[in-house]
Amino acid sequence: MADGKPRSLSPGPGGRLGTLLDDAVWGLRAYGFIVAMWVRSTMAYRASFLIMLAANFATAGLDFAAIMIMFAQVDALGGFTLPEVAFLYGTSCVAFGLSDLLLGTAERVGRRVRDGTMDVLLTRPVPVLSQLAADRFALRRLGRVIQGSLVLGWSLTRLEVDWTPGRVALLASMVLCGAAIFGCLFVVGGAFQFWAQDASEVQNAFTYGGTTLLQYPPTVFGKDLVRGVTFVVPLAFVNWLPALRLLGRDDPLGLPDWLDLAAPAVALLCCAVTGLVWRAGLRAYRSTGS
Amino acid sequence: MDDADGAFIDVRDLTKTFTVRRRSGLLRRTATRVHAVDGISFVLRRGEMTGFIGPNGAGKSTTVKMLTGILTPTSGRLRVAGVDPWRERTRLVRRIGVVFGQRTTLWWDLPLRDSYGLVRRMYRIPRARFEENLARCVELLELGDLLDVPVRQLSLGQRMRGDITAALLHDPDVLYLDEPTIGLDIVSKARVRQFLLTLNAERGTTVLLTTHDLSDIEQLCERVVVIDHGRLMYDGPLAGLHEVGRGERTLVVDLERELPPIEGIPGARTVRTEGPRQWLAFPASASAAPLVSRLAAEYPLVDLSIREPDIEDVIARMYAG
Ligand SMILES: Nc1ncnc2c1ncn2[C@@H]1O[C@H](COP(=O)(O)OP(=O)(O)OP(=O)(O)O)[C@@H](O)[C@H]1O
Ligand SMILES: [Mg+2]
C-alpha cells in the first residue's frame, strides 16, 4: 500500500514554502478573475450601478457631515482642528473602505455554512477565502473609498505638514497597513463563524464600531478604553499612532516613538495570525446535516 | 496515483463523529455525540460504477463529504488517488467531480455559460478541451437552449443537468453523485442515467452514486455498498443483495374458482388472495419448478407467473433486520 507518495500531486521543487507561495499566487489570480466576472456582470446594468455607487458615497458622507456639524459649534475637538480630524477620518475611511471593498464578503461564512453553500466552495480547486471574498464583488463599495479620499485630500491641503519622503511613506503605510488590519478583522470574524455561526454580530461591533471610534481623536475617549483598543484590537495602528506623529502631536499614552513605525510589522503579524485562524476554522468546519 | 493493488478510493475504518450541543433547560447545554459514520471500509477500483445506499441519516452524505475533502474524518484512513483528500484538497478536487442533488454548485445569478466560464478558469481547463467537453454535455443533456438562462430561472431538472455538466468539464477521474435524480421526472431521469452510462463506458470515469431511487441503482450499478447507522451492511454485486436480504420470489397463480388459501406446499406460503388469484412467496434461492408441478397436481390451475423479488422490499427488510 503506497502511503501518500503521490506522484502527480506532490509539491513542486520549491518544497513546502514553494507550495505555499504557489497557492497564494493562485489564490490571488483566482480572486482576480472571479472579481472580473462579477464586475462585468454588474456593468451590464450600468445605470443601477451608478445609482448604488452614489448612494454608497452619500451614506459614507453622512459620517463626515456629523463631524462638520460639531465643528460648527466648537473650533477644536479634544484639541484637534477640523483639518486634523478630517485627516484622521480620511485615512481610516480609505483604509476601511479598501478592506471592505476587497474582503468585506469574507464575513459571510455563517450564512454560507447555514445554507450549505460552503460545501460547494470546498469542492473547487481555489482557496475558499478567494472564492468567498470575490463572491458578488460589489464595486459600489468604492463609494466609501472615494468619499474618504476626497476628505483626506482636502485635509492635506489644509494641514501644515512638511511632506518629506519619509512622511509620505508613513502616510501610505498607514492607509495600506490599516486596510490590511481591517481585512484581517473581516477574515478572523469570518473564521470564528465556523465555530459559532452567529458570530457575525460580534464582529460587526469590532469593525464598524472600530472605524467610528477611530474617526474621533483618541483623547475624547477615556484612557483605559483607548489602551484597550490599542492592545486588544490592533486597530489603533491603523490610524492614530502614525497620525499623531505626522501631525507632530504627543501621544497621550506615552508609548515609545518606534511603535508608530511598527504598523507594517503589526500588519504582517496580523496577516500571519489570521492565516492560522482561518485554517483552523476550515478544519473545524462540520458542514450541515442535509 | 493509484495504490499498488489498483484501489482508486481506499477507505479503512472511517469514522466521523459530530458533537451536537443542545440547550437543555435555561442555561444548561448538553453535548451528545452522533456517530454519523462508524467504521466503514471499502475499496473502489478505477472505472467502477457503485451504488451507495442506505436509509435517511445513514451517513452517506457525510462519507461523500469526507471523500471530497470537505470534512475531516474523526479517525480512520482515507485515500483517493493515493492522497488524503482533506490535506490535498485544492489539488485533488481537480480530479473529482461532485454533484449535490440538494443544492447547486453553479452561481445562482449567472447564466450557465458564465458559470462554465468560471469553472474553466478555476480548473484551468485548456480551451479546446473545454469547448469539446461542453459541446458533448450540451448535446447529450440537451442544454442548448438553456446556456444563456440565469441558474435561478432553471427548473430543477434543467439545473441538475447544468450541474452535472459543470462537474464534468474538467474530465474528472471520479464523479460523486449525491442524489442526482431527486425530484426529476421520468424523462429527465432516463436522460441522466443514459448520460452516466455513456460517460462510464467511454471515459472510464469512476462513479459513486447515492440515491433513494433504487431503479437508478438497478440500471446503473453492478455493485452496491449499503450502510445503515454509519455501519457497512453489505458490499457486493447487486444480485447478491437478494440473498442477504432474504429476498423472496412470488408465484402468482390463477385458479379455476375461488378457493381457500393454498396450504401444504413445502417452502411456500400464501401471502395474499383475491378471488381466484393467489400469491405465494418462496425463497429467491429455491427453484420454482418442483413448486409448480406440485401445485398443478393438487389444484385446478388456469395460469401462473413468477415475480422476481423487488429490490426495494429487499432493502427495506435489510434496514429493518
Ligand atoms: N454537520 C452536522 N452536524 C451534526 N450532525 C450531522 C451533521 N451532518 C450530518 N449529521 C448527522 O449525521 C448522520 C448522518 O447524516 P448524513 O447526512 O450523512 O446521512 P445520509 O445518509 O446522507 O441521509 P439522507 O439519505 O437523509 O441524505 C445524521 O444522523 C445527521 O443528523
Ligand atoms: Mg444525504
From TrEMBL, chain B:
Keywords carried by this UniProt record: Antibiotic resistance, ATP-binding, Nucleotide-binding, Transport
Membrane topology category: Peripheral membrane protein
An example Gene Ontology molecular-function term: ATP binding
Listed PROSITE patterns: ABC_TRANSPORTER_2 (PS50893)
UniProt cross-references to Gene3D superfamilies, sorted A to Z: P-loop containing nucleotide triphosphate hydrolases (3.40.50.300)
ABC transporter domain span: 9-254
Keyword Nucleotide-binding annotated: yes
SMART domains xrefs: AAA (SM00382)
Locations listed in the record: Cell membrane
Protein's recorded name: ATP-binding cassette domain-containing protein
